[in-house]
């Protein structure tokens, strides 16, 4: 059975060549993916994604791999920069395709509400979704029925033309939306001027809880895509918070598994990692100084897993817990 899976057919040629080069380095080193993970600080799951062309490795992982395999990092980072541009171009094409799909779906939905689908024809106006000249010489869009010319002032007003299909529904929807908006404004005014009751006429506003301090986005290193609360729920590898920007803050042994709190001061976040575990075991990261929802991860056949990130004020405020399929549970010591 071959060691490597076939790279995706849709992969950009530059990215394909880069992934192939990474595979050659790993093969030449004689290291397993697990050994590469241990020596570079990036998870085994992440390296499988990098080497199978499912995710472009961050620059920090490339530099670490060059160091582990004794490769000159200059050539490797040059290939990475070219691949990073190619990957960005592919993502842009994908985004444009998805945007076109969303626009088409939106037009279809508007056509349903208006009674006429995209491309529907009307007598005297042809077909298509673009603007068309009306009978009076003006222009109207696909959902705006042509308006007949005004009669001369001296002539008696003609009877109103029948409403276009769907116009009544649209008017009702607009009226309901305006009514709901007005009610919300009134409710907000009442809350701002009458919170707390009593004889004090001064408006009282509920203070929002203080947010966790986070680094300024403009000060983040290259490749790091978030900081603080913006990182919560995100993948640390995808957001660039792992690798050289992370360290193991605390460790605990739970049964046969090892649980760690991984902390990134650069991003202001922590996440939990579990290794030497069994499929089905779960790991969770939580904060001891806030009420944010914990983030969880589940072990698959790789026998390791990590959770999404959670914004924390410091590494001491993070706690990682594991629940094994054998029923054994355990946590790291927060602040230890």
Task: Describe, in plain words, how this protein is organized in 3D.
Helices cover 34% and strands 15% of the residues. It is α+β, with helices and mostly antiparallel strands. Strands 3, 4, 5, 8 and 9 form a five-stranded antiparallel beta sheet that branches. A four-stranded antiparallel beta sheet has the order 7-6-10-11, with no helix packed on it. A hairpin with a 5-residue loop joins strand 10 and strand 11. Helix 2 packs across helix 3 and helix 4 packs antiparallel against helix 5. The chain is globular. The two termini are 45 Å apart. About 18% of the residues have low confidence.
Give a count of the beta strands, DSSP E runs of length 2 or more: 11
Pairing-aware structural class of the strands and helices?
alpha+beta
The number of helical runs is: 6
Rg over alpha carbons: 30 Å
Q: Could you give the distance between the termini?
A: 45 Å
Low-confidence stretches: 117-158, 195-212
Which features characterize this protein?
336 residues, 5-stranded antiparallel beta sheet, 4-stranded antiparallel beta sheet, 34% helix, globular
């Amino acid at each position: 059975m071959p060691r490597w899976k076939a790279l995706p057919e849709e992969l950009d040629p530059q990215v394909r060549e880069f992934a192939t080069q990474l595979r050659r380095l790993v093969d030449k080193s004689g290291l397993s993916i697990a050994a590469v993970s241990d020596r570079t600080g990036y998870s085994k799951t992440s390296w499988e994604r990098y080497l199978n062309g499912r995710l472009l490795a961050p620059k920090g992982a490339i530099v670490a791999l060059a160091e582990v395999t004794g490769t000159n990092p200059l050539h490797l980072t040059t290939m990475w920069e070219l691949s990073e541009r190619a990957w960005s171009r592919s993502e842009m094409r994908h985004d444009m395709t998805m945007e076109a799909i969303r626009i088409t779906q939106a037009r279809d939905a508007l056509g349903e509400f208006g009674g006429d689908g995209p491309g529907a024809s009307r007598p005297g106006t042809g077909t298509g979704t673009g603007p068309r000249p009306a009978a009076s010489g003006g222009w109207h869009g696909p959902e705006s029925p042509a308006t007949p010319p005004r009669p001369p002032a001296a002539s008696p007003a003609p009877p109103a033309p029948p409403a276009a299909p769907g116009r009544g529904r649209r008017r009702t929807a607009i009226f309901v939306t305006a009514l709901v908006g007005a009610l919300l404004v009134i409710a907000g005014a009442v809350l701002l001027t009458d919170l707390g009751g009593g004889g004090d006429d001064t408006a009282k506003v509920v203070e929002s809880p203080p947010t966790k301090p986070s680094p300024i986005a403009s000060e983040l290193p290259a490749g790091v895509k978030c900081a603080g609360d913006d990182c919560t729920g995100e993948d640390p590898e995808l957001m660039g918070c792992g690798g050289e920007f992370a360290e193991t803050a605390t460790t605990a042994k739970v049964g046969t598994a090892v649980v760690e709190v991984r902390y990134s001061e650069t991003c202001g976040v922590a996440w939990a990692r579990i290794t030497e575990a069994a499929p089905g075991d779960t790991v969770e990261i939580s904060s001891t100084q806030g009420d944010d929802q914990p983030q969880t991860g589940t072990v698959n056949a790789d026998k390791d897993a990590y959770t999404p990130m959670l914004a924390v004020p410091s590494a001491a405020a993070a706690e990682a817990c594991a629940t094994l399929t054998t029923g054994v549970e355990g946590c790291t010591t927060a602040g230890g």
